[in-house]
Structures are given as C-alpha cells and as structure tokens.
Design goal:
mainly beta, 295 residues, 1 helix, seven-stranded antiparallel beta sheet, Methylamine Dehydrogenase, Chain H
Length: 295
C-alpha cells in the first residue's frame, strides 16, 4: 500500500498474471490494474495520486539500483506518460531515486543531474501533464519535494552543509517565504505534508519535526531506538504514517504516542488504510480517538 485517494488505495500487486501497480476500491473490494510491469522491472519505489492521474517511480532493473524511471497513468483515459529516468549521456546518473509528488495535474520531483567535481546535484522539476511542459524551480543539493499547507516545499543544502527550506505556491509556483521558525532546520532527510502540516526528519532520521500551519507551532519528536527511523513519511489527519525499515508505524502528532502495525500503511486527509496478509483495514481520520502513552 502506497497511497490513498477518496476510498481507493493504490499499491503494488503480484499474482499469477504478473506484477504491477493496482487500485483497490475499498468499498467494493474490486481490484483494478493501473499498469503491468515489464519482466525486467524490480518493483515500485514511490507513488502519488490526484484526481485521475497516478504517478510512480519504479526500479527498472533487478540488479542495478541506479536504473529507475518515473511514469504517469490516467485512470480515466488510459493514457501513459514516461516523465523521467536516470539515463545520462555517459551512463546512469548518480543520486537518490526520486519520490515524485502530484497535485493539480503537475508532477514534482528532484531529478539527479551531472555536476562538476563529482558533486551530487539535482534539479527540482515540475512537469505539467496536460501541457507536457517542464519547469525547473531550483538546483543544487536538494531533497525530494512535498506538498504541504498549499505549498510545494523542499530542502536545500549549501556548500557549508547548512540546510534551508524553500517553498512555492502549489498552483502558481511563485516563491513563498516560509515562517522564520522553519527556514533553517538543522538537517533534513525526508519530508511529508498535508493541508495543515509540514513534517521532516533529521539527517540521521532519529528526530521528526512538525510545523502546524494553523497554530504556527513547531513540535519535535525523538525516537528511542534505531529500528523505527523516520523515512517515507505520510500525514493522514492528525497522524504520521511511515515505514522504518522493519515495520510500518503510526504516530499521533497530537499526543506523541505511536504503535507498530503489520503489513503496510498509507493514508489521506480522510482515511488511514492498513494492508496486511489476508485483510485490508480502513479507518476514517475524522473522530478517531487520540492515542495515549502507557503510564
């Protein structure tokens, strides 16, 4: 399970007919195919969905982690678009596999590019699925972007290893100044967001910080072990969903209490969905009781 839109959950499936990206209707239980992988594809890295479009990053080789591509499929028209890949003029481009995000028919991601001196650089690109045009918003040592609080937000590291957060309006793509309290985080590894929250993990993924846009409040959460590192972050209502490498976990951003869950977990503003062997469980975020820490 990678993403939820309305009452449809999206993820990866492997059955007798092959492997690919699928959509599960949580009301009827009907499973639909978004795309089928070619035999050489290793699997799904990241996925985002908005209205009729589904966007995902896939690993195109079972032996080469540098061989990846980003695709989009329109569930209404059946149209498929190859948006980006890791192929460069001299071979595969170095750098992290992108975590694409999608909003208003535009895909945003950090695209690795060749830079002088062997440095790992990226361009923050936005691809308009209707116009088939690409804009470059920033370049340098960049994180993957995220949509949060009506903004497209990303982190940047300068030559002195100082981190900063940057943002543009999610519709106009015009620069927006973030609140001073969050402009200069100590470090950033992963970002997550929702309509009213921005979250990011520290460079060692042991600390999570949350900015509440409505309350203008910054909150910090720190892990007590290294088996639940904050990575691949999703915000669903008042809850953070993430996969720490060994298990899926849920953190109540109001109380700081958390728990692990079998299988995978994904969510949206309306739903939290847990896919585990033999069952798919959905819980509405509205009215969900807050977690409490044991005394």
């Amino acid at each position: 399970m990678h993403a939820v839109r309305d009452q449809i959950a999206f993820g990866q499936s492997h059955d007798a007919t092959g492997r690919g990206v699928v959509a599960l209707d949580l009301r009827s239980g009907k499973l639909g195919t978004v795309t089928r992988y070619q035999p050489e594809v290793s699997g799904l890295g990241a996925l985002a969905v908005d209205e009729s479009w589904v966007v995902w990053e896939q690993l195109d080789s079972k032996t080469n982690l540098a061989d990846w591509s980003v695709h989009a499929a329109n569930r209404t028209t059946g149209e498929n678009v190859r948006i980006a890949d890791s192929h460069g003029p001299g071979g595969f481009l170095p750098g992290q596999q992108p975590l694409p995000v999608l909003r208003h028919g535009s895909v945003a991601w950090a695209q690795p590019v060749l830079a002088g001196g062997g440095a790992l650089h990226a361009e923050l690109r936005v691809f308009d699925l209707a116009r088939r045009t690409t804009r470059v918003l920033d370049s340098g040592r960049l994180s993957s972007p995220v949509y949060a609080g009506g903004l497209l937000v990303w982190a940047k590291v300068d030559d002195a290893t100082r981190y900063s957060l940057h943002a543009v309006d999610e519709v106009t793509l015009q620069p927006v100044e973030l609140p001073p309290a969050i402009q200069r985080p100590k470090s950033v590894a992963y970002l997550g967001g929702s309509a009213d929250r921005l979250v990011w993990s520290s460079g060692d993924s042991q600390t999570l910080e949350q900015w509440d846009f409505n309350a203008a409040k910054l909150t910090r959460y720190t892990l007590t072990d290294r088996s639940h590192v904050f990575q691949f972050l999703q915000v669903a209502g008042d809850y953070l969903l993430w996969y720490g490498g060994t298990t899926a976990s849920v953190l109540d951003l109001t109380t700081g209490a958390a728990f692990d869950t079998p299988g995978t977990v994904a969510g949206s503003a309306q739903w939290i969905v847990n896919a585990r062997p033999g069952a798919v469980i959905r819980v509405p975020t509205a009215g969900l009781p807050h977690l409490s820490c044991p005394a």
